[in-house]
Amino acid sequence: MDDETWAIRYIEVTTRNWWPGKKVLFSPAWIQKVSWVDSKVYVGLYRDAIQTAPVFADSVPLTREYEDRLYRHYGRAPYWVHEDEHKPISSLSAA
Q1: 15 or 39, which is more confident?
Q2: Residue 94 gets which letter from DSSP?
Q3: pTM across the whole model
Q4: 3-state secondary structure string, 13-67?
């Protein structure tokens, strides 16, 4: 969760059903469908892309460098590009 905006930036996925012991992240914006009956979340990513994604370690702080590698790996535009488009213009006051 983003400390400033309270936006949920990532979902942690443990790939133990596919490969032992790996955790990866992906954006909730990439979710295409949720099946509550099947307990599955469908995302627009190939299994191979998830398998080769940068490993996430929750013991290490999340850095912009890691986020940049993650978005480049998945071939997606980073969230901060879109946020900059929607920031309000600061008003300047004369002294």
Answers
A1: 39
A2: -
A3: 0.70
A4: EECCCCCCCCEEEECHHHEEEEECCCCEEEECCCHHHHHCCCCCCCCCCCCHHHH
